[in-house]
Structures are given as structure tokens and as C-alpha cells.
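Lab channel / #folding
Pinned by the channel admin:
"Please post every new chain as: sequence first, then the C-alpha cells as a reply. Keep commentary short and put observations after the output so the thread stays searchable."

First post following the new format, from NK:
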Amino acid sequence: MNERRVTLADVAIKAGVHVTTVSLALRNNPRLPPSTRERIQALAKQMGYRPDPFLRALVSYRSKIVKRRNTPTLAYLTNWNTRWGWKKVTAHNEFFAGALAKANEFGYRLEHFWLHELGLTQKRLSRMLYARAINGLIIASHSREMGDELQLDWKNFSAVKIDYFPHHPRLHNVTNNQSSIIRLAMQKVKAAGYRRAGFVMHRGWDHAVDHNWTAGYLCEQQHYPLKDRMPAHIFPEPDPVERWFHEHNALVQVDFKPFEKWLNRHQPEVLISKGAYVLRALEKMGLKLPRDIAFVDLFLDRTDGVIAGVRQNHRTVGAVAVEILAGQLQHNKFGVPEIPTTTYVEGTWCSGASCPL
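Reply from TO:
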């Protein structure tokens, strides 16, 4: 015979409060004093109360089909050198698109706020968001030049960060799994019989992801014989993609000589990188894909079978960030988490003629 489930009403009777108070306490609602929440939560745990997953599913279903009178808003905070400059950078526009789609699906409105707005201090932004009852924040597209710490009034907000910057405070974050992505690429080419795999990455991009690109490369190299290993070429020049956006034809001005010297010295059979970093240089050197050297793009944005590589699922990153944030809001989890977590989104391998397998 099934044991009777402890209900909210049972906990309410034992605690001497209304069932609504128990519900608020178990969802950690800040409308109740901390002492009341802690007392009821401890009592519920002692009594063996467990939420009913079927009831939660019903509530979730009803929330999707019943139109809300006032659509709640989530804030999408960026801190770039211009309001929309982040949209021109690989991945960031896709992060926003994924977050927007998931917010709409969950019944939220997603509103963009630029932290570098003239006259907008972080203290003023905190007050403005609180006054508008916006307590869910997606922290995204934060340029390294804009500082490495946000000082919002965190006790009023629940926040999830996309990517690694800013590092402070330490919030839950969602990001592409760069280490896994390059390891996947190296495993694919090794399994296909390529013995010497070379890696080229921009120094700033590696730094932006806490050096996970080089970490993955060095880790996977341990499976290669010593004679087939080579150092990564981490070039210090300004990002060619950024220069292309701002100076149009500036790609022809990029100094490829250090790359050419590295390539001639180490003679990789397959090159793993980003197309904008190396394809122009290979063309200037008269090298053809895949006749002279095979190529794998770690930032693959085309799936027509011409270029092999890994498609980073940027939209999924934005969508997962909203999913995590919605869960925190549902349980009224505000402030900086005691133990922040990182959620990684894997890449998808796509075969292509540039690297026959």
C-alpha cells in the first residue's frame, strides 16, 4: 500500500500558518522574513515533504496556455563599446537570438539594456530595474575593456551569465564548450589518419574563454606521438574579423608572416582554426584545400559540405541561459550564488571537402 504523501496543508497545520505561507516559504519568496522561511523549510524537510512533479507539470502547462495580463520582463545586459557592437562579433548575435526565442516560449519579454549608456551608472540601473520589477538578468556580451566586475544591487536580482566576462561576481554561467570542441576536431582528424594537426588561434579569443582553446589542444595532443606534436600558433595581432568590420578591406593588411613561418617549420597535415584567421594567408601562399593542407573550422557557419568543422550551437547557449534563469526565478533565488555553476554547450561536427575523412 502506497504511503500517503505529505502535503502543503499538512506542513501548514504543523507550522501554524496558512498554506499560502508554506508555499511562499518553500519557494524562498522574499516577501517572508528569512527566519520564517528557514523555520518552515526545516519543518517541511523533517516531515518528509516533497513537491508533486505532476502538479508542477500541470502548473507549467497552464502557465503556457493562459495569457498573462502583464508579461514579465527579463533584462539582457550588454557592456560593449557601442550599443550594438556586440552584434557584429561571432556568436553574440546568436546568443541573443536563442535567449529571445526561449524567453518568448516561456512567456517572458526580453529587453536589452546597454550598461555603457551615457549617464547610466550601475547603481542607477539597479534602481531602475527594481522599480520596474525586473529581477531576472542575462549578463552577456561584456567587453574585456569595460572592466571585470559588475556592482549591481545583487540581493534584488537573479542572474545568469553568458560566457566568462565579467569574472566578478561569480554567477551561474552558460558557455560553449571550447575545450571539448577542439578535442572533438582533433579526435575526428586523428581517427581519419591525419598524423600532424596544427592549431591557430587569436590570443584575445583564447583569453576570453579562460584559455580553454589551448587547454583542449594540449590535452588532446597527449594522444599523439611526440614526433607529431607541435606548439599552437597563438598570434598577437588584432582580430582580423574585428578589423574587417571596422576597416572593410583591412584583412589584406594583416601580417601573416609569423603564421607562414610557423607553418613552414612544423608542416601540419591538417590545420584547425577559424577561417578568417588563416584562409586568406593560405591563399596568398598558394596552398589549396585539401590538396596541400586539410582544414577544419572551429567556428563553422556554413553546412554546405565545402568546409569541415564544428558548428558551435550559440543559440542553444542563449536558450539554456534563459531556462536556468527561469528556474531560479521560480524558486525566488536572488543574489550571488554561494556555489556558482557552469553549464557547457557542446558543438556539432560537420564533415566537409576541406578535410576528407
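NK: The domain at 178-313 is CATH 3.40.50.2300 (Rossmann fold).
TO: also worth noting, The chain has three domains: 8-65, 73-175+317-345, 178-313.
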